[in-house]
Specification:
It is a single chain. This protein is α+β, with helices and mostly antiparallel strands and 441 residues long. The protein has 13 helices and 7 strands. The strands form 2 sheets. A 5-stranded mixed β-sheet has the order 2-4-5-7-6, covered by helices on one side. Helix 1 runs antiparallel to helix 2, helix 3 packs antiparallel against helix 5 and helix 11 packs antiparallel against helix 12.
Length: 441
């Protein structure tokens, strides 16, 4: 327990002392005030510290966030047992030792059963409040922590995605200038055409690099334009073939992915007029395939690996679909997933975190409702019993609200802590997982 808890218990003791001293004490003197304060402090600190220690122990061994239902059941059982013992202990100290109103035999004979029972209900009220307060504080802390974590993940993913996209500018420019440098020496006229075409293509790069996804049609058109640049340099040494289904043109791929893969084909393979490099771009089973006949060249300088790695990472940030790579003695193929829409899996984690927070908040409201019901029960029922026994002790009508309302509280507990919609959802999920494992779904 914390220091503030002891301060609260002190103020509770003082408030209780003032109430009993001015309403119940006939002789209002310092001695009676001190005695009332001693008794009130005993009840407040023994019951308060006892329940606080139990709550702290359960928080360490079984936090609310890890096993809510088990923790709720264990809390109810523990506070019933603990408060029964604590109240009997305090009443024995009060009536037998401090006030000396009864002997030990009289106390356990049943004369003080009503007093004990009444005090137990008051103690249960305090315990229910402490456990409900502990639950709400922990759940609020955990849900806020989860939302913060989700937002940090999403921000990190956004930053990573932006970093990957920003690699495209220098990467494209560097490779294009290398090609242009070669053409200046080999064919100045072609170099001029290449420069004009490169400006158009680079405009597309600047337009598309900030997008998460582009249509297959846009990417194909850009790839064809880029292939014309490559043909300018390699002429008959490189051939290109585009076969894409019409229904796939309106679907989506990562922008500039084809351009990066086409660069890889040229970079890692030699091409001559006698042994031309054939690059095919075609759609197959919801994938966009880029395939070339394998004519691997020996690279003097090790590749930086920006192209293919960039594509793989950007797909990983946007979808669960994987980029597949196939390699044999004759060909090298990369399969890019064709997406039906514009998924934003990572970027929706902020919204998911907000939904999780709203769901947790709703859960808190449900449990607050249960504890409010339980607290009301613990307050009203003892009051009704007191009224019944003081006005008409022969006719015990208090059993009707005690049992009727008690059944309602028990039903409410089952609904909140497992035997309600949450239980049904768990059971449905369990059956679906079982059927999925057996191959029925």
């Amino acid at each position: 327990m914390k220091r503030k808890d002891f301060i609260i218990l002190f103020w509770v003791s003082l408030a209780t002392t003032l109430i009993f001293f001015f309403l119940s004490t006939e002789e209002k003197n310092l001695e009676n005030f001190s005695l009332t304060l001693l008794i009130s402090a005993m009840y407040s600190f023994v019951i308060g510290i006892g329940n606080g220690l139990i709550n702290d122990f359960l928080n360490k061994k079984m936090p609310w966030s890890e096993a809510t239902t088990k923790r709720a059941v264990l809390s109810i059982v523990s506070i019933l047992i603990a408060n029964f013992i604590l109240v009997y202990f305090c009443n024995y100290i009060n009536f037998v030792i401090i006030q000396k109103e009864a002997t030990a035999e009289m106390f356990f004979s049943g004369k003080y059963n009503f007093t004990n029972w009444f005090m137990i209900n008051v103690a249960l009220l305090i315990s229910a409040f402490l456990h409900a307060k502990g639950f709400m504080e922990e759940l609020k802390k955990n849900t806020k922590k989860e939302v913060v974590e989700q937002k940090l993940i999403a921000k990190s993913a956004n930053a990573q995605f932006e970093s990957l996209k920003n690699q495209l500018d220098p990467h494209f420019l560097f490779n294009s200038l290398n090609v242009l440098s070669s053409l200046i020496d080999e064919n100045p006229n072609q170099a001029q055409k290449f420069t004009a075409s490169m400006s158009k293509i680079y405009r597309y790069v600047l337009e598309q690099k900030d997008k998460e996804l582009v249509t297959v049609e846009e990417e194909i058109e850009f790839a064809k334009t880029y292939c014309e640049l490559l043909k300018t340099r390699f002429e008959d040494s490189v051939d290109f073939e585009f076969i894409v289904e019409k229904e796939d043109l309106r679907k989506f791929v990562v922008p500039l992915s084809l351009q990066l893969l086409l660069e890889n084909c040229i970079k890692h393979n030699f091409a001559t007029s006698s042994k031309p490099l054939l690059i095919k771009v075609f759609s197959e089973n919801n994938t966009l395939c880029i395939e070339n006949n394998l004519q691997a060249r020996e690279l003097i300088k090790e590749s930086a690996g920006i192209g293919l790695a960039n594509i793989v990472q950007r797909y990983a940030l946007l979808t669960k679909e994987n980029v597949f790579i196939e390699k044999s003695e004759d060909y090298f193929k990369v399969k890019l997933p064709i997406l039906l829409g514009k998924p934003k899996i990572v970027f929706e984690k902020i919204e998911d975190g907000d939904k999780a927070y709203k769901k947790a908040k709703k859960r808190v409201e449900e449990i607050k409702g249960f504890y409010s019901n339980l607290i009301s029960y613990c307050i009203v029922i003892p009051f009704l019993i007191f009224i019944n026994l003081t006005t008409n002790s022969r006719n015990h009508w208090f059993w009707f609200p005690l049992l009727g309302w008690g059944i309602g509280v028990a039903t409410h507990a089952f609904q909140v802590f497992g035997v309600g919609e949450s239980w049904q959802e768990k059971k449905i999920r369990e059956i679906m997982n079982k059927n999925r494992d057996n191959g029925k779904i």
